[in-house]
Amino acid sequence: MEDEKDKKKDKDAVRRLTQAELESVIKKHEDFISGRKGGMRAQLAHCMLEGLSFVGRDMSDADFTGASLAGADFSDSKLERAILFCVDLRGANLSGASLKNADLRGASLRGANMVGANMVGIDLRDGSLSNTDGSGELKEAHKELSVVDKGGANLSGAKLNNAKMSGAVAVGSNFSDATMKGAKIRKASLKDADFSGTNLENADLSDCDLENVTLRGANLVGTSINLSEVSKQNLEGAMTSAPVGKTLKDLPAPLEQLLVLHKVWIDSNGKNGKQLDISDMDLRGSRGIAGQCLTLVKARRAILYDLDFSRAELQGCDLREADLRCINLSSADVRGTDFRKAQVKNANMQGAYLQPLILGNGRVMATNFTGASLRYSNLSKANLRQVIFREADLCDSDFRGADITDADFTDANIDGAHFDPEQEELLKKFLDKSSS
């Protein structure tokens, strides 16, 4: 009897890895991924890996079936195509991780942090797993988990385009500001889930339990969902196919012609042509804007959701209170533009020019984001010299590689924002100076 107990202890000891033992497995797996000699795919099924670190490592195609990963740190790691079937990821940190096409069926994500994770094509459907215990009898994996334990994940800001979640239990989960275009979530339990500001365009949420679900500010264009089950209060600000204000057809001429007239107005210093004013208009779906001259355009409170303004000239524009969520401003010239109180969540401003606009005679016009929300936005490699971010919501935005010299972060919320070490020094000096 003692020998059998010792054998069982030895078996359990083999399954519970230390960080040092895990490092050896990861090294061989990364060699396997890279095609280097001696590489070996990680086989971590049913292993006890609670609290261990995978930060920044490449675990693509690894097998974690039934593993205990509660509290593990996968931040900024790669788990593409990984088998995470019926794993216990309660309280795990997967922020910034890439889980493209991963198998998460039956996984427990209660309290997991998946902010900014790339989960395109994942499979989050229901799943069950039984394995043998020491006596050879079948038992359910992680049988101690309750129905509530199988939900409640924090997936705010995560990329979940085309994700498969049919039959999932996501009770109390936070999907706020996530991108979930084309996601399949049929017959899922979404009680108390938060989809505030989530892009659910063309997603399928049919036959779901929507008790007390929050969809404030969500994009529901083309979404299959029974909104009669959602209270009016929880639908406040949600976008459907119905326009918000005037649309393209209400313009005095086709947008292409108006852009030409605006360019003439700019080139002639206002003597000819006509300034473009699209304030309070809903221009969702507009095309042909990338690379255009839009200097001094008036677009206060305009709906410019998910439009492509890459490489465009937008100097000195009035974008106050505009809806610019998911907008593409990469490499655009946005010097001196007024973004006060605008919604700029999930925007791509990589490599954009946002430094002050020089007007001559010593006058300058600073780019102003006072009171704006830029959650989950990409500002990497942008020129942000002297940009005003006063009272702005910059949670989980990416500033790495950007020039933030003399930028004003007074009272800005920078929780979870990504900065380089050099930027952190500049930020610390600014905050110390402003508090003294």
How would you characterize this protein structure?
This protein has 4 helices and 4 strands. The strands form 2 sheets. The chain has a two-stranded antiparallel sheet with strand order 1-2. The chain has a two-stranded antiparallel ribbon with strand order 3-4. The chain has 436 residues and is mostly loops. The protein has helices spanning 2-15, 19-34, 255-267, 421-435, and strands at 130-132, 138-140, 357-360, 363-365. The protein starts with a helix and ends with a helix. The protein is 13% helix and 3% strand. It has 2 domains: 1-242, Pectate Lyase C-like, CATH 2.160.20.80; 244-436, Pectate Lyase C-like, CATH 2.160.20.
Chain-wise SSE layout:
Blueprint lengths: L1 H14 L3 H16 L95 E3 L5 E3 L114 H13 L89 E4 L2 E3 L55 H15 L1
Could you give a quick summary of the protein structure above?
This protein folds into 2 domains: 1-242, E3 ubiquitin-protein ligase SopA (Pectate Lyase C-like), CATH 2.160.20.80; 244-436, Pectate Lyase C-like. The protein is built from 4 helices and 4 strands; from the N terminus they run H-H-E-E-H-E-E-H.
